[in-house]
Amino acid sequence: MNKNGKAASFYDLEGTLVSTNLVHTLGFYARRQQGFFSTVKKSVGTLAKLPLFGATDLYSRNVFNEFFFRSYEGESEDRLRYFSEELFEEILKPAIFDGTPDLIKQSKKLGHRQIVITGALDFSVKPLCDYLGIDDFAANRLEFVNGYATGRLLPPVMASATKAKWIREYAEKHDINLSESYAYSDSISDLPMLSIVGHPVAVSPDFRLKQTALQHDWAILDLK
Questions:
Q1: 37-59 and 61-68 are packed helices; what angle lies between their axes, rounded to 10 degrees?
Q2: For the whole model, what pTM was predicted?
């Protein structure tokens, strides 16, 4: 990496720039299910599992990913993409933290490239990234066979250390100086991502990340 390269701002999304999470997105899609009894039954089952997904996410982000995305198995790719704009208008746009637009605006004034790195699905976050003026984003991608989701994710799976690896590769490719760059997250699961930039920022952090930020004198920010 060229140490004289330009800086960037890398953002986790859920809980950092917006108040929603992956569970809210799945709940939205589940409520939009229509059709035969078997589909309705699946939707009810998905909604019933939402609290369990939340608990699993607190335990382990990697375990959560493996467990969570199985719920998309059998879903039509066309239908998921069709509802992505409605998802943005109804769920994501109202959930943008009040301070998010100003944070991005100030970062752009510094000449930073704006990049979101999220465990959410690519088609669900694209409208949001476009709205916020994000330059690039990396997100999880469902595997589709014959137009239907298998319940598996295509690699790389965006979580924990994989995010850090992706950032390093992106920085090399785009001549980004990581020592001058910023990273923002609310979760201890993103510690690898926060640790590889010169300016890590904990945004409304969970307990463990807050303690880590205080120990290392990292900035703590509240965008609410």
A1: 170
A2: 0.85
26 within 8 A of 33, measured Cβ to Cβ: no
Mean pLDDT by 10 residues, the chain (224 residues): 78 93 77 49 47 50 69 88 92 95 96 95 95 96 95 90 96 96 95 97 95 97 94
Q: What angle do CA 9, 96, 69 make, to 5 degrees?
A: 85
In sequence order, the 6+-apart residues with CB closer than 8 A to the CB of 134 are 11, 104, 114, 115, 116
- Cis before 156 (ω within 30): yes
Half-sphere exposure of 94 (CA within 13 A, CB side): 6
Which homologous superfamily is 8-221 in?
A: HAD superfamily/HAD-like (3.40.50.1000)
Tokens of 217: 């004198």
Per domain, the residue ranges of the chain are: 8-221
pLDDT of amino acid 128: 96
Identify the pLDDT of residue 22.
76
Which residue in the block uniquely carries the two structure tokens 């952090």? 205
